[in-house]
Amino acid sequence: MSFGDLVFVSPYLTTAFKTGVIALAEGIAVGRSFSMFKNDHIDGNKEMIAIGMMNIVGLFSRSAVNYNAGCKTAMSDAVMAIAVMFTLLFLTPLFHYTPLVVDTFDIVVCMSAYIGVVFGSLEIGLVLAVAISVIRVLLFVARPGTFVQGNLPNSMVYRNVEQYPNASNVPGILILEIDAPIYSANTNYLRERITRWINDEEDRIKSAGESVILDMTAVGNLDTSGISMFEEVKRLVDRRGLQLVLANPGSEVMKKMNKSELIEKTCQGWIYLTVAEAVAACNFMLHSTKPNPGKDQEPAAWNNVCWLWLATM
Fold first, then answer.
1. DSSP conformational letter for 168
2. Which residue range forms the structural domain that includes residue 197?
3. In which element (H, E) is residue 53 found?
4. Which residues contact 222 (CB under 8 A, 6 or more apart)?
5. 296: pLDDT confidence band, cut at 50, 70 and 90?
6. pTM for this one?
7. Are residues 150 and 256 in the same domain?
8. Are strands 158-160 and 146-151 parallel, antiparallel or unpaired?
9. Which of 79, 133, 160, 278 reaches 20 to 30 Å from 215, CA-CA?
């Protein structure tokens, strides 16, 4: 119990006032958020009184827990208050060695914030945590995931072979998944990754076919640098005697590819809705009629996915 340690003089009173204003704004914001779930009305004055009373007894609002647990009345707060009081007074030693399982990068963010607060100030710790989190986001944007896909047994589903060990490579076809939008920040990295995959798998895909499928399901957008990257990838696969095929590009990607005439330059007639359809088309076309990568090809009569989409624009 620490009631006797309270000091109502400056500068402690000023600090307490500032903290109270921040806590009040936060509490009212949380209350309004939960009121939207049940179409309730929030009275700011009652919220101020409730937050003040809760802070007097040293408790924090657990609105999220109560809502998810299905609590309906204020009696849940009384039960929670008693449970928290007994836990803080008698049960805390039992939780001393409880492990905290977090991501490695989360540990870096937390330790940076902790060190900034201990050796600097609260503002420094907050700035360090935010800055490291922003750097993490930028790294994910600059180095997106690229995976080789394989076919799951007895299905038409294609997934990452590293995540699904039972997924098998399709003979003669290299299926690559791009897991992020394509911008100037990551085009060089993606170009290098695609080139490396083609170099590593060239012997395998040339032994039974000649095609590279890019699964673009997760590519929400691309810029001019991304368009240039596709042109370079097309030149690369042409030099290797391969066929470039696209699977499931989004509407924004298709619009930009159409306006930049990238479709005619790279994948005319070789765009499909799913990876399974692309694999079936490659197996049929590349095994029945060997394409000449040095010349533009006429699209097959039965492959109208790309052209039907363009006609509706």
1. B
2. 146-289
3. helix 44-56
4. 181, 182, 183, 230, 253, 256, 257
5. very low
6. 0.55
7. yes
8. antiparallel
9. 133
Residues 172 and 106 in one domain: no
Q: Do 136 and 217 share a domain, yes or no?
A: no
Q: For the chain, how many residues are written?
A: 313
C-alpha–C-alpha distance, residues 120 and 113, integer Å: 10
Q: How far apart are CA 280 and CA 161, in angstroms?
A: 19
Burial 115-129 (b: 16+ CB within 10 A, else e): ebbeeeeeebbeebb
> pLDDT band for position 276 (50/70/90)?
very high
d(C-alpha 113, C-alpha 109), whole Å: 6
CATH number of the domain enclosing 188: 3.30.750.24
| DSSP code for 218 | T
Q: Does residue 272 share a domain with residue 179?
A: yes
Residue 150 lies in a domain: yes
The per-residue DSSP string of 17-39 comes to HHHHHHHHHHHHHHHHHHHHHHT
| Through-space distance between the first and last CA atoms of the chain, rounded to whole angstroms | 71
> What are the tens digits of pLDDT across the range 166-213?
998 888 888 999 888 898 888 888 988 888 888 887 777 666 567 889
